[in-house]
Automatic annotation (TrEMBL):
InterPro entries given in the database record: MMS22-like (IPR042320), MMS22L_N (IPR029425)
Gene Ontology terms describing biological process: double-strand break repair via homologous recombination; replication fork processing
Protein name: Protein MMS22-like N-terminal domain-containing protein
Organism from which the protein derives: Amphiprion ocellaris (Clown anemonefish)
Superkingdom, taxonomy of origin: Eukaryota
Length: 631
């Protein structure tokens, strides 16, 4: 009869199945992992990381860190079964002792690992298992705090049960253990060279050396310590947690707030130090295409820190992420000693200001929301193309800043006749190629419509445009904020007008005059065209009558470009055409005058021919203008 019955009544469930079939395998906790992530310009992070798995979101929303896990009566930690609801209270020191022991095993594995490829697989899986044990324990601590920790009263109060006394001591004991872990792992900057070298392992395979696992465990621990301290502060409902045993032994105060801030500052300092090391190998032409992080895990760590600190700033009124970065970077730019909390930052940086622009720009790309006014970064402008390119990036990511434009304009107004070219990049921009009014107007249009951020055209802007042309894009963005002629527009326009005088106009070189014309074309496109054109004509009238012929060609070319702009808007071109015709007639009379020397006639023929070609281009572009008004 027994043979007539099958063990499986309703597959796959069977009353005869082993109990192990009913045990749910715990979900693998999130961790830093860059083994399957390529450097994606769209910003994709690892699917196993804290962001993609929703760990960060649950932390900020005060939700259970792992709602589907640790639901059974017992939990396996470091190979031993523990009572889920009491283990952390009853065995705090023992559990953290096992954590340290497991961490030491992984460190020993790194030191003893050899280059035998036959053992690579075994070493990988052993190191991965040790790391997962540590990460799983830290995840259990987070879950325990969220589910079971309740704020208690005075520690001196009498308790009816020994467990209640241990439970009341847990926050203080946990704080001391976290402090011990921080001392155990040390700082990222102090990691041995063979461990730090794992940052450069970018193969897409499945087998990694123990050093790779140890390095990423360091990142897991650094972030988890901040998570646990944040959770602890939330669960204690504003009560400050003191490490009582530490205070009794050393006489120094150690609180959850001070430990969070100290660990955070050290972590930001170390990440910035790693970025400084990478910046030393970045060429200026690659500034925006070369990231500040060494692998996508450090990129994700920056993102986690940014969002956590901004959340704490809004809810707890603590310092924001950009406040910390400002305190960290300001001394670096000014050459002053670093603040006391930011110890260990490398003192040697090839270009502190350039590095600051570079780092802030890439960090802003990670955040992509307006947190800090660019003016609070204390801009110290140099004529470096990368700096202005970074400024343009920040204006696209955040909002254009009037104060930033004013600072930039103060520099360019004093150096308007400079070439702004980088010798090894060749002639940049179209300044020397705008030989027709339409080409000049098209360049002004391109300055008013920068390519999308991260597009190939934007990345190549560093090579295709000089720093003044990039500044014009920043200016156009700022003027475009208020097309109704608001206060920012009037302020900027007034600052631009105030920098020009008859003496200034007469001192402009050919390149300076080209920059002047392009500047006023950009401003004219963004604000009141008639007012800007009138001011431009007034200033151009300050040029001496015997100015070089090349200057005369540029003046006419710029005037014809303004005329094209008038026609685009459907405005009356009479005043502009009259001014042009009068200037052309004066030059033509000099050309035909019998007393004019031959050399002078040859010099004047260039501007006259250029003018006639420009007028023909205007006629071809727009049919509403009568030839007689320009000749």
């Amino acid at each position: 009869m027994a043979d007539d019955f099958s063990q499986s009544l309703t597959p796959p469930v069977s009353p005869f199945a082993a109990d192990s079939l009913y045990e749910l395998t715990p979900t693998r906790p999130p961790c830093f992992c860059c083994s399957e992530v390529k450097d994606d310009p769209t910003g994709a992070l690892s699917t196993e990381g804290y962001t993609a798995r929703g760990s960060l979101k649950r932390l900020l929303l005060r939700l259970d860190p792992a709602p589907a896990d640790y639901e059974t009566d017992t939990v396996d930690i470091f190979g031993f079964p523990w009572v889920t609801e009491t283990a952390l209270v009853e065995s705090t020191k023992l559990l953290f002792g096992l954590f340290r022991q497991t961490f030491f095993k992984l460190e020993s594995l790194v030191q003893s690992s050899c280059h035998d490829f036959g053992q690579a697989g075994n070493l990988h899986y052993e190191a991965e298992d040790l790391r997962q044990q540590c990460v799983s324990f830290l995840q259990y601590v987070k879950v325990f705090l969220h589910r079971y920790l309740e704020p208690s009263g005075c520690l001196d109060a009498s308790y009816s049960h020994p467990y209640e006394e241990l439970e009341a001591q847990l926050p203080s004991a946990l704080l001391e253990e976290l402090f011990g872990i921080i001392l155990l792992i040390g700082r990222l900057k102090d990691l041995p060279a063979n461990v730090q070298s794992a940052f450069t392992i970018h193969n897409q395979g499945k087998i990694f050396p123990p050093s790779w696992h140890l390095l990423h465990l360091h990142l897991d621990i650094h972030w988890s310590v901040l998570e646990i301290l944040h959770l602890l502060g939330h669960k204690m409902q504003g009560q400050v947690v003191y490490a009582h045993q530490f205070v009794n032994l050393t006489g120094e105060n150690l609180t959850d707030i001070s430990l969070f801030d100290e660990h955070l500052c050290n972590l930001l300092c170390d990440l910035t130090g790693l970025a400084i090391g990478k910046f030393s190998k970045v060429r200026p032409t690659e500034a925006l295409s070369s990231h500040h992080y060494l692998c996508t895990c450090t990129k994700e760590l920056w993102v986690l820190l940014m969002y956590l600190l901004e959340y704490r700033n809004k809810v707890l009124r603590t310092q924001s992420f950009w406040g910390y970065m400002n305190s960290l970077l300001r001394p670096l730019v000014s050459g002053k000693p670093a603040a006391e909390q930011f110890t260990g930052l490398p003192t040697h940086c090839k270009d502190p200001l350039g590095f600051t622009w570079w780092l802030v720009t890439h960090l802003a790309m990670l955040g992509q929301y307006n947190i800090l006014d660019i003016s609070t970064l204390s801009i110290y402008l140099l004529c470096v193309r990368m700096h202005v390119h970074c400024c343009l990036s920040l204006c696209l990511l955040w909002e254009p800043s009037t104060s930033a434009v004013s600072t930039l304009w103060d520099y360019y107004s004093k150096n308007l006749s400079a070439s702004f070219t980088v010798p090894w990049l060749g002639m940049s921009g179209l300044g020397t190629l705008c030989k027709t009014p339409l080409a000049l107007l098209e360049q002004a249009r391109s300055c008013c419509s920068p390519p999308p951020l991260r597009s190939p055209g934007y990345t190549q802007l560093y090579r295709s445009a000089n720093s003044f042309h990039i500044f014009l894009r920043v200016l156009a963005l700022c003027l475009a904020q208020d097309r109704a002629g608001g206060v920012p527009q009037r302020q900027i326009k007034g600052r631009i007008y105030s920098k020009f005088s008859p003496k200034k106009m007469q001192e402009l070189s050919e390149g300076g005059l080209m920059n002047f014309l392009l500047l006023f074309l950009v401003v004219a496109r963004q604000v009141e065209l008639e007012d800007v054109a009138s001011r431009a004509c007034e200033l151009l009238g300050c040029l001496p009558s015997n100015c070089p012929p090349a200057h005369r060609s540029l003046v006419w070319r710029g005037q014809l470009s303004l005329l094209l702009l008038f026609q685009e808007r459907g405005l009356d071109v009479g005043a502009q055409a009259t001014w042009l015709a009068s200037s052309f007639n004066d030059t033509a009379k000099e050309f035909y005058n019998k007393t004019t020397e031959v050399s002078r006639r040859l010099a004047l023929w260039g501007p006259l021919g250029s003018y006639l070609e420009g007028v023909a281009e205007v006629f071809e572009t727009r049919s509403c203008c009568q030839p007689s008004c320009l000749l």
